[in-house]
Amino acid sequence: MKKWFQKLALGCALLPLALHTTLPAATAAETTEPVAATAAPVVPTVDADPALWVVKDEDTTIYLFGTVHVLKPGLGWFDEAVKDAFDQSDELMLEIVMPDDPAAMAKTMMPLAVDPNGKALSSRLGADDLKAYQAAMTDIGIPAAQFEMFEPWFVAVTMSMLPLAKLGYDPEQGAEKQLTTIAKQNGKPISGLETVEQQLGYLDQLPEAAQVNYLNTVVRDIAKMGPTLDTLVAQWAAGDPDALAGTMNESLGSTPELAKTLLWDRNLNWADQITARMAKPGTVFIAVGAGHLAGEKSVQDYLKERGLTAERIEY
């Protein structure tokens, strides 16, 4: 799978929410109005059994659960071993704690999303890439001129998320959103491995060439979004991290800096945090994008280097 889309679906948790808090007002209304005007159909529940791991010692248990940040209605994944592990946990830990106030999210994102030097997006793209980008934006139904002030990473993220509602995917159905709601209902503490500023900063600090490459990859592959995400979700629901890793690693070389920044470096950092947390008694349910728990240089791989074994829970 192309790395840009894998990161949206299985990596950066705040991006689906970020889309709705930073689009120009007219654009956001145009994007969401058709969805809001149509009554949601009744969808039968399909059983899903995503992968779950556990790391433990004498007085500490940490569950590792891979998530998809945007899902379609009708997947029954919060049951059996996943629900048991969550219920037994003293706290929930996510990639980030989503802000309750969309205005706060926008206040954090906009200074990073807008180019501080006023450099126009179109000036960063070669003639052929600019033509392809403008055509893709036209197909989506958004005037490209509305994004001239933004940095390439933000435009790439926005373009990636815009078609999802039409494909039936909904951030409100995402695993983190559901887990957060349940944790609040049960008075379970919620914390984050990262802050909103950190997660946005990973993208904002990419070199310009890497950001442009990211955007060009999104434009080139955007038509494949639906089938690719459908495949990933099916592999996630089947609890098959090996297949999921294979899908994600397709054409990994097209965005190497993005892979290092958004996957491997963060996996290493989280493994250090989990290792430190093992020194404190208790039970923690950690839910992060499934891409971080699949393939080489996964969180589990880095934990193994630190003498910790993440055992798969079969159910």
Describe the structure.
The chain has 315 residues and is an alpha/beta fold. Helix content is 50%, strand content 11%. The protein is built from 14 helices and eight strands. The protein has helices at residues 3-10, 15-22, 25-37, 80-88, 102-113, 127-140, 152-161, 175-185, 196-204, 208-221, 225-237, 241-249, 256-277, 299-305, and strands spanning 46-47, 52-56, 60-67, 75-76, 91-94, 190-192, 282-289, 311-312. It has a six-stranded mixed beta sheet. A two-stranded parallel ribbon has the order 1-4. β2 (52-56) and β3 form a beta hairpin. The longest helix has 22 residues, at 256-277. It is globular and about 60 Å long. The protein starts with a helix and ends with a strand. Residues 1-9 and 17-40 have low confidence and may be disordered.
Based on DSSP secondary structure assignment, what is the total number of beta strands?
8
Can you write the helix and strand succession as a string?
A: HHHEEEEHEHHHHEHHHHHEHE
The N- and C-terminal alpha carbons lie at a distance of: 27 Å
The radius of gyration is: 19 Å
Shape: globular
**What is the count of DSSP helices, taking H or I runs of 4+ residues?**
14
Low-pLDDT segments:
1-9, 17-40
Helix content: 40-55%
* Average pLDDT rating: 86
Largest sheet data: 6 strands, mixed
The strands making up the biggest β-sheet line up spatially as 6-5-7-3-2-8
Provide the β-strand percentage band.
Answer: 5-15%
The structural class is alpha/beta
